[in-house]
Amino acid sequence: MLNRREFLAGTAMAGAAGFVLANSGLALAQSAPQIALFVPAAPGGGWDQTARTMDQVLRKEKLISGSQITNVPGAGGAVGLPQFINQWKGKGNTLMVAGMVMVGAILTNKSPNNLTQVTPIARLTGEFEALVVPAASPFKTAQDFVAALKADPTKVPVAGGSAGGSDHILFGLIAKTAGVPATSLSYVPFAGGGEALAALLGNQVAAGISGYGEFAEQIKAGALRLLAVSSGERQEGIDAPTLKESGIDVELFNWRGVFAPPDISEDDKKSLITLVEAMAKSEAWATECKNRNWTSILMTGDDYTKFVADDTARIEAILKDLGLA
């Protein structure tokens, strides 16, 4: 087991006298450390992309010599979480990638496990959501969209991802801010972004909500109109106001972060935080975030623990409004 000073010294030496994998944590030896990355989702999705990008950047920066990535898909992470809690307990070299989607999945699936049973390490990235309409839509602004919701929410069907996911949650938050009962909303969930996009382009729905990247090509082509984004500030290169600028007091990032298993040592927790901070502050990570339209929103330790608790409470409240929790 190593202390923080040993870990920092080893990282600075970039492998000259780094670390290797030990069963219960990271131990001092003659090479950079190896870590285990647990992904409670199928290969190819956002959490899997995050894990594989982490592996790539950590190797490039010589912070690790390699990693083992394990995928356990199902129910927005609610299938993998119990395995991570029970089978990976005490393994201080391990990180699970998860995020806002898991918070919602735990609540909607009424899972007996939750994120209070793991060890928060760091929030890494956020993807802001986009509110779009077909090019022929009468809605020119987000205010137009909200006015129609207030008039008759049943006539404003909105396409998005799975029920209870980040798209649905954002729709619920917009409605709540506007004083529209969440249970009256017409939300049309789709399993994939392609299906939601087809519904929009076919004028089968009034609007759509998803990550900006899902709509970017069609927005640039003029097939979709971007009304607003859910970030706290305007985004460089995107000609659209935030929801807050539009008078809708809502900000939402579909955040992703990493957690360690329960029962790891305090030294291992500090070492993992140091490792992730070094990665997140690297030029290689900044480049990957830019290429993938991820916004870096690094937060670690106790601040991250509080953020997860606060966000869980917020999501639970809106899912209850939607009748899903």
Task: Give a nutshell description of this structure.
This protein has 325 residues and is an alpha/beta fold.
Alpha carbon gap, first and last residue: 42 Å
Reported by name, the CATH topology of the largest domain is: D-Maltodextrin-Binding Protein, domain 2
- Main beta sheet strand tally, sense and closure: 10 strands, mixed
| Name of the top-level CATH class of the largest domain | Alpha Beta
Total number of distinct structural domains? 2
Uncertain regions spanning at least 5 consecutive residues:
1-25
CATH 2nd-level architecture of the largest domain:
3-Layer(aba) Sandwich
SSE layout and pairings?
Layout: H1 4-12, E1 19-22, E2 25-28, E3 34-39, H2 46-60, E4 66-71, H3 80-87, E5 94-99, H4 100-108, E6 119-134, H5 142-151, E7 158-160, H6 166-178, E8 187-189, H7 193-201, E9 207-211, H8 212-221, E10 224-229, E11 253-260, H9 266-280, H10 283-291, E12 295-300, H11 301-321
Parallel strand pairs: 3-4, 3-5, 7-8, 7-9
Antiparallel strand pairs: 1-2, 5-11, 6-9, 6-10, 6-11, 6-12
Helix pairs in contact: 1-9, 4-11, 6-11
Descriptive notes:
With 325 residues, the chain is an alpha/beta fold. Strands 3, 4, 5, 6, 7, 8, 9, 10, 11 and 12 form a 10-stranded mixed beta sheet that branches. Helix 4 packs across helix 11 and helix 6 crosses helix 11. The longest helix has 21 residues. The chain starts with a helix and ends with a helix. The N terminus is likely disordered.
